[in-house]
Give the backbone structure.
Amino acid sequence: MKNKLIYILLTLASVITYGQVNLSLDADKTEYGGKDIVNLTIVLELNGSDLVQQTGFQLPDLSKFNIIGSGSVTNTVIDPATNTLITQKVSRIALEPKKKGKIKIGSVLVTVNNKIYKTEPFDVNIRDIVEKKSLASNTSNEVYLNMEIEDRDVYQDQPTVAVLKVYSRNMDNLRKVKNIRLPQQDNINVHPINFNKSEIDPSDNGNMASQVLAMFMVFPNEAGYVEVPGVSASVSTYSNKNKIVSNKVKLNVRKLPEGAPDGFTNAVGNFNVSVYNTTKEKPEAKKPLNVVVKVAGEGNLPDLVLPKIASSPDYEVFAPKITSKVSPGTYGIKGEILANYVVIPNKSGAISIKTEPFAFFDPENREYVDMGQKKLDVNALSHDQVLESRSTVEKVNEYTNNLLETVDTPVLKTTSFKVKEKSKFHWNILLTNIAILVGLFIVYLLFKTWQKKRTLVRETVSQKPLGSVAETEKEIRELLKTDINDYFGYLENLKDNSEYEKFFVTLEELDQEVRNQYFQSSVAEFKTFLEKHKGSAVAEQYASLQQKIQMEKYAPVKTHDGIEELLKTIVNLYSQISK
């Protein structure tokens, strides 16, 4: 009985220890000074080969910190005592506190085998912090840049994608971020993917909104720990212009494996090399040929060293003209680069034009690919052989061209004509000019007489007795009335040129002009006026239009279709009001 009890306990212990998941979140200390960095360490330990991590680490709300860096490492070992696979993933996050006092750090979540695990929340105490001046007009409108690079463990010259985001408590500040400058450093090559702004993502707790500003690729060209400098931008307001800088990100750049082929320089990706002749005429000795070396594929295409045409006594080669057609891809920059060479054969006969050896490293398969030398076989003809190989039509054309160039035929000659000058004086021209001057003088006298009569009529009309108050008000309204069609045309031009700020300023001027025609100073008074004189339907349309104008004016992203639909509504309603 005693032996059975021991066996049962051992069985339960083995079941408990098998498939165990440990998740922890710790800070390096509990109290920090004003300039200290808060370092958080997340450790996930999986004991068992059947455990699968289904999601990444879901971080808590860290809006009270600036994320200045992060990194992770994964280790896998087998326990020799129990023959159990142990996988340990460690992530570090460096935070800069924004304010002092006790700050609560929430739980980290992760899903393993359809079960959610979380850590316990804890508090950190921040002593007196160095206050930073706000970049916007007040402390509630601060703007922050954050550069995120998910894949930080890459090979040398292998690309990794960086995403630039902007954060602010005030959504209106997001559209003020301009003049984005990507990082520049000797040990990295940076190529933009796009600068398209995404839709604004409001935060869960309502304190901070975010928006993607740009995406770019980073190609580290040296091994080791490479720090990507921050991205800078400017925040433009009406009063001043401030510069903001994002966080720095450190990359773990792995050195390329040993055993690289002789033709390998720095090509990392997947490429293909070809060489061909683009000259339409038959190859001839001592005459130039246009030879193109094309490298196509995807990887660090804009930065790789192109294979050159190898030197040879059979031909003379000159420096190439480089042209490229590239675009961002999934695993780097894809497209093709063309090196256009001028090659002159030194002799007639068979000539082999060869390129230098070329090889590249494939990071997906983690192996080198040797493309070797590419060659172009050319049969250069002598001048006599070229003449003999011409067809009858080509010989006739050459004979005709030589004839036209050397023989001066009468049919092709032109005669130049000159107008002879006459010394006789033309009295008719003089009399005609005098008659024109007399006619212009008579027209001037008639105009002055008509102007005097018009002045007398105006004085007579001004002496008429004044009418009623309503008639006087109507006359004044007619004098104040503005042709709103001019506004409509100007708004159409602003809409087509995407000048949306001027569009809404002009729209306010139009509304003010229309209200002035009816002696109404505010929008509310004008709405009441429309209800009495134009009907409740027009008044409701006017109120609805004002709300729509405000929504479009302060929308973070303005679309051409939305502005065009708004302009149609404006034209229809204001034309109806100004009748």
Summary: The chain has a mean pLDDT of 80. The chain has four domains: 13-126, 143-254, 264-384, 480-578. The first helix runs from residue 2 to 17. The domain at 143-254 is CATH 2.60.40.740 (Immunoglobulin-like).
